[in-house]
Amino acid sequence: MIDRRTSLRRTFELHVPLAMIVAFALFPYLWMVLTSVKPDADILQWPLRYWPSQLTHEHYVTLLARTSFAANMGNSLIVAVGATAVGLAAAIPAAYAFSRFRFPGRRALLVGFLTANMFPIVLLILPIFVLMRMLGLLDTFVGVIAGHATFAIPFSIWMLTSYFAAIPIELDEAATIDGASRLQAIRLVILPVAMPGIVTTAIYIFITSWNEYLFAMMLAGQDVRTVTVALQLFIGEFSIQWGLLTAGGTLVALPATILFLIIQKRLTGGLTAGAVKS
Amino acid sequence: MTNTLQDAGMSRRKATKVIAGAVLGAGLARPAIAQAITVRWWYHFDNPQHTPAELIAKFEKENPGIKVQAESIPWGGGNDYATRMFAAVIANNAPDCALVKISNQARLLEMRALHPIDDMVRGWSARGDIADDVWRVNRGADGKQYYLPIQYVVLYLYYRADLLQQAGLQPPKTFDDFLAAAKATTKGDVYGFGMRGGGGGHDHWGSFVLGAGANFDKGGMVSPQALAANRWFVNLHREHKVFPPSAPTDGFRQIVDGFKAGRTAMTIHHIGSANEMVQALGDRVSAVPVPRSPQGTGWTSFGDESNAIFASSRNKEAAFRWIAFLSTAENNVAFNKLTGQLTITTSGARSWDLHPQRFVDATSQSLPIATVLPDRPQTPDFTRTVWPTNMQRALLGQIAPDEMMQTIEKHFNG
Amino acid sequence: MSQHSSRRDTVPLTPYAFLAPALIITGLVVLVPALRTFWMSLQDLILYRPDAARFIGLGNVIRAFGDEVFWISLRQSLLWIVLSVGLQFLLGFATALLLNQSFWWRSAARALIVIPWALPSVIIGLMWTWMYDFNLGVLNDMLMRLGLIARPVAWLADPDLAFYCVVLTLVWQGFPFFAVTILAGLQSIPADQLEAAEIDGATRWQRLRHVTIPGLADIIMTALLLRIIWVANSLDVILLMTGGGPGYATHTLPLYAFQKAYSAMEYGYGAALAVILTALLMVVVMGYVRRSSRGIAT
Q1: I want to staple B301 with a disulfide (CB 3.0 to 4.6 A). Which of B155, B166, C190, C297 is the partner?
Q2: pLDDT tens digits for C130-165?
């Protein structure tokens, strides 16, 4: 009896609202997936055709065999992984410094990093383009990754500073008293305890970089073209390749989603609680 | 161990250099040994499955020593392509040559970004295969030739033959015919005319307002007949309701898709969408030139595309050979098969079989009234923001039609 | 505390060394271009007439204050930020709380929630425009089948609706960010505190109010701040869906700056609009830094 009441309550307090949210999140994507397996004639039919007259994988075949989409996915992967690596490598020490030291200029620098994120990129892109040209970085992975560092580093610094600041300072002090160097303290204490925050930050950079268009369009030529720019190529002056576009859109969401499916297990409770108590 | 590491570092550096060098083009650091000249060329195709690779292979075979490095640039509604091009000009990184449209010519000339090709054209044997009128339309404001035409489209009126027949009407020839046809076909889920109110839709408006005598000279937008024509056009929506309610923000995709789906009875577009319309509607779709004003005047948009050579190019002769190759008879036909537009060459047009004949006819019958917007620096901003914003406000009744015309007048003539 | 201050005395250079990589990269790719753009904002600069550029100081800012479209865009930018970020946050927070419980389909739910965020704006803009489409949109079709509307609605062409339609799209795109961020933050709330509160007889709402939210305050504030900045500057979805129309109905400040800088090529004026936007955001940030708890920025 009690069991049934609890399970009924759980249904209404957990499963139903969450199912609604998941449905909201998923609907446009499912509509796209459905479109991607329709023959061309079905896509723009009126009255609307919900279910394909026949399932087809022709758009996927065309996409992968007759356009550069697969190579563009690879380029995007390089750029997104690169941006994540650069972002974290620069931001972890910086965030550690902001959360563990009090030094002259700290506040100004912290605000400064945020200001870096405030300027609309559309108006920065022209000077950045000229700069990359001077540095010889146009049409290179390094150039696009450097472009993505403009949002990756400031964002990571702020997120990580607040995650690090939530870790009691006694933890790393205890480690240093035990004879650990500062770098060891970071590696052995801060990083493990802040792992959920670091994972979240990494996901953010990866996804933002994966989805970024303007830098990729301006700074990268054909050889390092990313997937967002490739998708834009399906939208021509006089026609839209709906089949290719929806097939591409279906595939483009997969890496980040799979990545999150793998690492979401890191987002489970109890980590900090245990660490603080010890 | 150390050696391997150094080697690895070395080869990576070398690789980066090679990549950077290759992409930055031969213009920057031309290796002393290489005889081959590389021509960098920018283009945009609507269908990403199409590539110019075969044309390039043919050209390179005919022109040993010249390599063509073609790069497709996202069109992005025209914004991306133009932004990328102007950024490249500013950063001194422009390609040797690129596909361009007249609407950007004035701005490119102000930046002194283009190289005149008059001399080279004079020595080009196939120049006579492009009609004199086309050369004239593309000439720069300073009288020099910068653009080498490659393809074109002309906007005309698509109509549903079956719906007009049901209403007992002929395809419209005049504005009055048009209004009658639009009213007769607006019923149930169908609207008479799929009007494009989003960016780029000035072509639709132009047929009825520029066609009735409005123009871009001083006072040309606020003359009595211009104001009256614009009021008439706005009333098609506000009073007669022959446009779908979504017209204010509809773009080319919505008007073409709406027409294909049978939700509109007429719309204005060009031959580029003829094949997909026939695929969807078969014989039920046909085309005529856009209707004319009561005075017999008319206006329709000439959709131009040319190649131009940039002033910064170090390989102007080679670049010209490539763009001239593309505008030569059978090469030009092959090129237009990739883009779905019409060949610019007289010889190529004779054996044209890419589109059903009735649409080719509608195009050629439209040529007498086909023209381009004035070649002025204000034009791109007019088509992208000034016209859509004010047209939308007028269609929604937020401003009076006359106010819209005054804003356009001010935009062009201070 | 004494240890803390002694550390400050003995290693004054350490924090700067830790900051160096971030400073060098950001300085190069952000500061230098930003200063250039700022410099251009002080000029009457038409991109296609670079030689005719002249210094006009605050002339562009003064021009903006007299520009009706600037005020419309500014007002809509504020509404845009408040609505988009506010709704993203509320939905994301609720999602995080739900996803933090354990149930059999949790892994799947967590991954599926991320999908909207994992899509590029170009896809989002096109798919939503298509769903909102007057003639062929699935939204009109479904609402009509359900009998909720009698005739199709021109969602994006109606000035009263277009803005909220675009906001809904942005909420959809952005709420997973809050869900994931807050979910991560929830892991740092000591489980024993929640248990203690439960044993003391606190209701679920009280536990949320007195244990969870205070524990998350820092993360929430930071996430809100970063999201406000991101949303304030985002224009690709609007650009794709309405281009700022109908009329000025979906104009925001970055969109207007973009139009001025690239369509009209009045780069000086566009840059000035961007500088104004940055200055306004700066005010928000300073307010945050003053009030921030737990000493992140003290």
Answers
A1: B155
A2: 999 998 999 999 999 999 999 999 999 999 999 999
Contact: A158, C191; criterion CB under 8 Å: no
DSSP string, A100-156: H---TTHHHHHHHHHHHHHS-HHHHHHHHHHHHHHHT-TTSHHHHHHHHHHHHHHHH
Interface A-B, measured as beta-carbon pairs within 8 A, has a size of 97
Fold classification of B12-150+303-353 (topology level) = D-Maltodextrin-Binding Protein; domain 2 (3.40.190)
Q: Is residue C203 part of a domain?
A: yes
Could you read off the pLDDT of C43-71 as tens digits, one per residue?
A: 999 988 888 889 999 999 999 999 999 99
Range of the domain at C216: 59-291
Interface check for C268 against chain A (CB to CB < 8 A): the answer is no
What span, in angstroms and rounded, lies between the C-alpha atoms of A209 and A206? Answer: 5
Question: In this predicted structure, what is the pLDDT of residue C10?
Answer: 52
Give the best residue of C135, C138, C241 to mutate against chain B (max B CB count within 10 A).
C135
Chain C residues in contact with A25 by the CB 8 A cut-off are: 112-113, 115-116, 172, 175-176
Residue given tokens 């000029």 in the structure block: C43
ipTM score assigned to the predicted complex: 0.87
> Spelled out in words, what is the top-level CATH class assigned to the domain A67-277?
mainly alpha
Count the alpha carbons within 13 Å of B294 in the hemisphere toward its beta carbon: 6
Q: Give every CB contact of residue A158 below 8 A, 6+ residues apart in sequence.
A: A110, A113, A114, C222, C225, C226
DSSP B190: B
Task: Compare all CA atoms of chain A with the CA of B21 and give the residue at the minimum distance.
Answer: A136
Alpha-carbon torsion, ordered A174, A175, A176, A178, to 10 deg:
90
Q: Are A32 and C127 in contact (CB under 8 A)?
A: yes
Task: Give tens-digit pLDDT for B9-38.
Answer: 334 444 444 333 333 333 344 444 456 899
Q: What is the CATH number assigned to the segment(s) B154-302+359-413?
A: 3.40.190.10
